[in-house]
Write a structure and sequence with these properties.
This protein is an alpha+beta fold and 183 residues long. The protein has a domain of 123 residues: Gcn5-related N-acetyltransferase (GNAT) (Aminopeptidase, 3-Layer(aba) Sandwich). It is built from 4 helices and 7 strands; from the N terminus they run βααβββαβαββ. A 7-stranded mixed β-sheet has the order 1-2-3-4-5-7-6, with helices on both faces. Helix 1 packs across helix 2. Keywords: Acyltransferase, Biological rhythms, Cytoplasm, Melatonin biosynthesis, Phosphoprotein, Transferase.
Length: 183
């Protein structure tokens, strides 16, 4: 009688499994997954998305190193998309431009898939992103704009309010916030 070990039934090799949790920069191939999460997260709240699919592709082609995705078992569950900005404060142009010589990282959007909300993933992802920015020699600070109700969340992440943002989108007004990355 010859008994085969369970391992030999797989040809003596281990089965490949995806990592339980992975953080990595996003690529243009991630754009549709990003947009689906973003659309669901923002349309119900503000009626519009910070970035549309073509803009997501634009930033993921120009500056993928300024994005960060959180994947669980290969599935995108949360993300941040940023670009570089070269002025003290954000302006309307900051919504679509990437300024390669800039020293401020403009965080366009942070979104978490609906089934993973209220679990602290947004805070964890922002912490990881800010740690990552510290490794980029050109990054001096992070900027973002948010609605009033999100100010406490970003303050808990270490951001300080700079005051009303010059940028408006339709009827929406924003608070501009910053976080020092170094210096």
């Amino acid at each position: 009688v010859h008994l085969r070990s369970p391992r030999s039934s797989f040809g003596g090799q281990r089965r490949h499994t995806l990592p339980a949790s992975e953080f990595r920069c996003l690529s243009p191939e991630d754009a549709v997954s990003v947009f689906e999460i973003e659309r669901e997260a923002f349309i119900s709240v503000s009626g519009d998305c910070p970035l549309h699919l073509d803009e997501i592709r634009h930033f993921l082609n120009l500056c993928p190193e300024l994005s960060l995705g959180w994947f669980e078992e290969g599935r995108l569950v949360a993300f941040i998309i940023g670009s570089l900005w070269d002025q003290e404060r954000l302006s309307q142009a900051a919504l679509t431009l990437h300024k390669p010589r800039g020293t401020a990282v403009h965080i366009h959007v942070l979104a978490v898939h609906r089934t993973f909300r209220q679990q602290g993933k947004g805070s964890i992802l922002m912490w990881r992103y800010l740690q990552y920015l510290r490794c980029l020699p050109f990054a001096r600070r992070a900027l973002l704009m948010c609605e009033d109700f999100l100010v406490p969340f970003y303050q808990k992440c270490g951001f300080e309010a700079l005051g009303p943002c010059e940028v408006t989108v339709g009827e929406l007004a924003f608070i501009e916030m910053q976080h020092p990355v170094r210096g």
